[in-house]
Specification:
It is built from 9 helices and 28 strands. α4 (about 130-135) runs parallel beside α5 (about 160-165) and α7 runs parallel beside α9. The chain has about 400 residues and is of the alpha+beta class. The strands form 4 sheets. Strands 15, 16, 17, 18, 19, 20, 21, 22 and 23 form a 9-stranded antiparallel β-sheet that branches. A 7-stranded mixed β-sheet has the order 1-8-13-9-10-26-27. A hairpin with a 2-residue loop joins β17 and β18. About 20% of the residues lie in helices and about 40% in strands.
């Protein structure tokens, strides 16, 4: 069964506790992080200074094992809607940490700015499409500028989820987001909405208002190696055969010594999907699970039977440069404060190791000091130039920038 909940808030008219004269649109934003049991008061002060109406909260799994702690932090901003999820690592400014709570606060000043949100339960992977349709149906289509989606990072077909979203969302809106992380264990994730914490909850946030400037972009930085092999038997997000042989056996042969550490080591060697004509798609797929009995591989998104797959690899330098490229792809966002939500794949973190912070540092170098940056390492990313092109990605740095047009209504 799927359940939905929708809420509408006009961001400009929610109480801030401070009387101010009318002014042109100028977004308020801030980012910081909290280490368990430490600097809570200081972090609360940073977020409170932004007088937020929307706060993203991305935290390590241990925070969700005691949701009371998350609730107590969120209680510091009673006027704000709080959303978030569990992670495989937290991004805050130029820092990448494990075990922390990363916070990104946003407040729009324009009187026409508002958000609406909806949530749906996703019992299992087969419910992915219907959950996407339910989410999109829980928010109004008229005036929708951008939709942000966070969904469970296990037992979910991200491609089907997006297809469900696309079946309902208006064609002229844009879409971004990601799948929650769980420290690379692929055992289960948590998602946070104003209604509480759920292990199988997905949510969508719709942004409305002519003054809002919200865009997304992503880049990978991975390179192919080995021949393209045909997906001779696949169904949904499960691949059974490559070139007529069990997919798992072929994959293990390529991995060599890394095969002993499956499925975790699969994060280091994703596949790129290719068309039936072997044309590159730019879409990577990460293996979430293996089945020794069936010899199959389960991916985060769908695999096209009859299409081709090529193994990929990357270096730390290529991944760091790709992160900067994603930020540059956002284009000129003008002057004034901005908030950047960064969602990077857990596989990139494993490849980069001790140099993982170079991704966050690259984003900060491109975006400049007026941009508050926060985010998380995920089990999948959602991005596309427009709704039609939006896809489930793996192994990318996906960025969404939030701003207001100067002089807007």
């Amino acid at each position: 069964m799927l359940s939905e909940q929708a809420t509408n808030y006009n961001l400009a008219t929610m109480p801030s506790g401070i009387d101010e004269p009318p002014r042109k649109a100028c977004m308020r934003c801030a980012s910081t992080s909290i280490k368990a049991g430490h600097n809570i008061a200081a972090a609360n002060a940073v977020i409170s200074d932004a007088r937020p109406q929307l706060v993203f909260m991305f935290a390590a799994l241990e925070w969700f094992k005691d949701p009371v702690a998350l609730t107590q932090v969120a209680d510091a901003w009673p006027q704000a809607l709080c959303f978030g999820c569990s992670t495989a690592g937290e991004i805050s400014g130029t820092a990448v940490d494990d075990g922390t709570l990363s916070l990104l606060a946003i407040g729009f000043d324009s009187p026409d700015a508002r958000i609406e949100w909806s949530k749906a339960e996703v019992p299992g992977g087969r419910d992915s499409y219907s959950a996407g349709a339910a989410l999109a149906g829980g928010i109004p289509a008229e005036g929708l500028r951008h939709a942000l989606v966070i969904a469970p990072g296990t037992d979910l077909n991200g491609s089907a989820l997006i297809d469900g979203l696309r079946s309902v969302l208006p064609d002229d809106c844009t879409l971004s987001g990601g799948l929650a992380g769980d420290a690379g264990t692929f055992a289960g994730t948590y998602q946070l909405t104003p209604a509480g914490v759920g292990a199988r909850t997905a949510f969508i946030i719709g942004f409305y208002g002519r003054s809002l400037d919200i865009r997304g972009a992503c880049e990978g930085g991975w390179k192919p190696f080995g021949p393209a092999r045909k997906a001779t038997r696949a169904k949904g997000n499960v691949l059974y055969e490559l070139d007529g042989e069990p997919a798992l056996a072929i994959y293990k042969k390529y991995l060599g010594d890394y095969a002993a550490d499956l499925p975790g080591s699969a994060l280091l060697f994703p596949f790129e999907t290719r068309s039936a004509l072997r044309e590159r798609t730019g879409i990577l797929r990460t293996i979430l699970a293996i089945d020794e009995v069936q010899g199959s591989l389960t991916f985060a998104g769908s695999i096209e039977e009859g299409g081709y797959l090529t193994l990929m690899h990357a270096s730390t330098d290529s991944l760091a440069l790709a992160a900067m490229g994603a930020a540059r792809s956002l284009g000129d966002s003008g002057a004034g404060p901005k908030a950047l939500l960064a969602i990077s794949c857990v596989g990139r973190k494993l490849v980069m190791g001790a140099r993982t912070e170079e991704e966050a540092e690259g984003l900060a170098d491109v975006m400049g000091p007026q941009t508050a940056i926060a985010g998380f390492y995920s089990n999948g990313e959602i991005c596309g130039e427009d709704l039609k092109a939006c896809s489930l990605h793996n192994q990318t740095m996906t960025v969404t920038i939030f701003g207001e047009i100067p002089g807007g209504p």
